[in-house]
Structures are given as structure tokens and as C-alpha cells.
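Example 4.3 (complexes with small molecules)
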Amino acid sequence: MKATFTLIVGAGPVGLVLAWRLARAGHAVRVFERAPRLEPMLRSSTFHPPTLDLLDEDGIGAALHAAGRKTPTWQIRLHETGERAEFDLAAIADSTRHPWRLQCDQSVLVNTLEGWLSRHAPGSVVRGAAVEAVGQDSNGAWLRWRDPDAGEHLEHGDFLVGCDGSRSVVREAIGAVFSGTVYPETTVLVTTTFPFEDHLPGLSGINYVWAPDGTYSLLRLADVWRVSLHPHDGESAETLMAPERVAERLAQITPAAATAQVGEVRPYRVHQRLASHWVQGRIAIAGDAAHLNHPKGGMGMNGGIHDVFELADSLLEIAAGGDAQALLARYQARRLPVMRDDVIGQADGNRARMWEASLEGRRRMLATLQAVAADPIKCHAHLIKTSMIDGLRRSKMLA
Ligand SMILES: Cc1cc2nc3c(=O)[nH]c(=O)nc-3n(C[C@H](O)[C@H](O)[C@H](O)COP(=O)(O)OP(=O)(O)OC[C@H]3O[C@@H](n4cnc5c(N)ncnc54)[C@H](O)[C@@H]3O)c2cc1C
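Answer. The structure with flavin-adenine dinucleotide bound is encoded below.
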């Protein structure tokens, strides 16, 4: 085996998982991260069963479980009546060692991996390093980065991977087009310690709810609920974010929540995009740099983690003497179609379902989902797909 040196841009969950996989196999890595420290982000909270299976080494999964909440069931619900279709992940215990979703902020994964890398590969994560340019020649790849005092540095490696998120400089450098759309609605994410579970009978830890005037969701983490709200017609996100308006909207979920202690209130818009290609020579992209999907169903970070497990396998096979061009092409051939068809498509469908406005349409969808949940064979297939196990299995058969 030839030891390789991989340069990684971005210390988000995806870049750090890649660094961990390569470092634990004895390869040199260096991760360049613009942010001097990890800022709280209120982004991913759902880890799907196969992702938990993959992360179950070196104490990484244990750290996530210590900080998160095991969530075996999830549901789609009609606000007015509390009628629901509930799915229990115990149904797929034959296909995963973790038949539950883990609700845990993605910052826990970032911190845990950074801690592991600092112990096992000291100096491999460089914070305050803004990568400005990347390139390659026949021998390797390089990047130029700037430190917080404006000093410029150059670094060479064998391969370079852009895990630098939605505005990726690496994606731009390899000339990939990031086509797609931005969804029209703004979401306002609110955290609160209010015990919704004591007021809404039969609530799961993950609840997507049809409300009379739109939709909201309730996700329970270890110590807070995350509530996703949307402005009503003609209302701006800024108006909805005012404390009195947040209180009114929480009270519409259940009256006692009018006096809930509210923690954070954050707006966000969502894009759906896919990079035209993920590899050029010795440079690849992964995670949000390569694809963006609607967060309904909690699949973006999970998909990015699945990307870099596949990419790490390719890089390790190259180090063992495999053909670099063919193995990096295999990475793209396995992951791009799965992200396009399984993840972006499924997330788009999840969003569309929750924006169904008519009661008749909602009741029809609810009845279909209830029938699926009640049928062991259909339920198993549905959960294998929505838990991303199907996509992971399919990717292995693609090239
Ligand atoms: C509200 C919300 C909820 C979500 N919920 C879920 C969920 O439940 N489950 C799920 O799977 N996904 C979810 N997602 C998506 C998930 O957050 C992202 O898919 C995930 O963060 C992508 O990880 P990443 O490492 O690819 O990119 P990022 O997390 O964006 O990390 C990229 C890193 O690169 C750094 N960087 C960027 N440019 C440079 C540069 N030039 N030089 C150096 N560093 C740079 C950035 O500072 C950043 O740290 C959610 C997203 C949102 C907005």
C-alpha cells in the first residue's frame, strides 16, 4: 500500500467523516476550514439507521447516542383530529443494527470527529483557513489558503476533496454546473422546551403535520423540540419571527404553548440542486458541495456521509494499487444517481405531500400511508426506502 495525502476543504460533517475514514486507515489528511470555531447551526438533527451503522466505530456512534434521542417511530398527522399514520422502525430490525432514527444536532458529530482527529492525527484540522483556489497537475492536487492574518499558504497533496458546502469553491474550480431551483417558502425554525408530548396525544419524536392553514413539523431532540413554521400568505418571515407572533403560532399547535419558553428562532430557504459532475482528475466533491435537497425526511447530511464512505473506499483502493481514474469515476457513478433519484426526488415528494392544501387530498394520502403502515410487507419496503438503506444498496450495484 502506498501512503497517500488527501487535502479536504471544509470541516463540516462530510469533510470530517472522510478525514476520519482515511486517517484510521493510516493515510495522511489535512482538512482546511474557514470558520475559526464551530458555530451553533440548527441544521441536521436526523441520523438514519444505515448512517448509524456506518458511524458505529471508534466511539463515534456512542458519542452521538449519548447526546441524542433514540426515535423509533415517526408520523404524518392531521392537526385537527390527531389522526395519523405512524411508522415504527422496528419493522426493519432485520436490515440494520440501529432500527431507530437518532435525533441529535450535527455539531455533535463535528465535535466528536474533530476530537478523534486531534488525538489520532494531530494537526490534521486547520481552522481559520479559507481556501481561495485549488488546482492539479499530473502528480497531484494543490490548494491556496489564507489565514486570519491574511497570510497566504500553498499545500500539495495526492488528491483533493471539496466538502465545502453549498457555495463550494472546489465545485466551481472543476467547472461543475449546480443546476436546480430554490423552493418558494421560507421556514422559521423555533426551539422550545415546551412539552408538546404532554398536550398532543400519540405524538412521536418526529411529526410532520398538516395544519388548517399550511403545515408544521415537530422534532424532538434530547432536551428541546424543534418546531418548523411557515409564514402565512402575505406574511414575511421577519413578521413571523417576532416573539408575539411565534407565541401565537405555537398556541395554534396547542393553546398551552402560548407561554412556551422559546430558545432560538431562525429562518432559512431551501435549494434543490445537483452538480453536473463530481470528479475531475484528482479532485472530487461530496456532500452539500455536490447536492442539495429539501430537509423534509432528513437526508442531506446522511447522503453526504454515504458519499464519503464510498469515496474513502475508492481512495483506499487507489492506495492499494487500483486505477485512480476508474475508481474515482466509480465513486461518481455510484453516488450521483442515488442522490438525484432517491434523495432529491424523495425529499421533493415529502415536501409536496405536506404542502397539499385540500382536506380531501390530505385524507386520501393519509389513508394510503395508514394502509402502508398496517401492511408488514409494504411497511418494510417503505421504511427501507425512506431510511436510505435502499439507496445505499442500489449504489453498490451501479458500477
Ligand atoms: C434546517 C435544516 C435541517 C436539516 N436537517 C437535516 C437532517 O435532519 N438530516 C440530514 O441528513 N440533513 C439535514 N440537513 C442538511 C445538512 O445540514 C447538510 O446536508 C449538511 O450540513 C452538509 O454537510 P457538509 O459537510 O457537506 O456541508 P456543511 O455542513 O455546509 O460544511 C461545509 C464546511 O465547509 C466550510 N467551507 C466552505 N467554504 C470554504 C472555504 N472556501 N475554505 C474553507 N472552508 C470552507 C464551511 O465553513 C463549513 O464548515 C438540514 C439542513 C437544514 C438547513
